[in-house]
Amino acid sequence: MIQLGNVTKTFAGPRPRTLLDRVCLDVAPGELVAILGESGVGKSTLLNLVAGLDRPDAGTIAVAGQDLATMSDDELTRFRRKHVGFVFQAFHVLPYLTVAQNVALPLELLEWGRADVDARVTAMLGAVGLGDRAGSMPRELSGGELQRTAIARALAHRPAIVLADEPTGNLDPSTAAGVIELLRHRVHGEGACGLLVTHSRTAAAVADRVLALTVAGLEEVA
């Protein structure tokens, strides 16, 4: 489902900086892979490349059988909309929409019927413990509630690819455990595949494989 071959990404500037150097990775359907690493090592950059939000300087990236290098920006947008669920570290919850409207947005972009949208939004908000916050505006939410809104939105359309950037960073331990279980269920129970970037070894422990991203590339963690 996800295949990276010798992917390299360098950021230009007075002192060019290579974050990813010939990184290789294969993630199978039904597999959840956790990636650990220090801040600034390139974990978020790796997720952005897999999502087609950025392009590598060298190497190949194939996601769900599609070579991302052959796709235009518009094609990548449509591909993400249908196949990718991305939990961003910064949430990216739209401030002018209610919690329910935020979660409904990917479904409406895919032209789901109204009844199906409403049922799915209700189910997802219940799954992340926000059933009583459907009508709230983002400014009324805590950081943890914003994080859970973002997670519900990312999983609402049953994506084949789940990408999560520090999804438990603003959550208490009990809520974090529930969120990780929700991600795991999406991957294992529905045949998706997932990449989970985290600093938390507790969160990483639920994954099928744990990798560490260093300047030397990806390495298996025992």
Protein traits:
222 residues; alpha/beta; Rossmann fold; six-stranded mixed beta sheet; four-stranded antiparallel beta sheet; 7 helices
Give a description of the structure.
Helix 3 (99-109) runs parallel beside helix 5. The protein has a six-stranded mixed beta sheet. Strands 2-1-4-5 form a four-stranded antiparallel beta sheet, covered by helices on one side. The chain has one domain (2-220): P-loop containing nucleotide triphosphate hydrolases (Rossmann fold). Helix content is 36%, strand content 26%. The model has no long low-confidence stretch (mean pLDDT 90). By secondary structure, it is α/β, with parallel strands linked by helices.
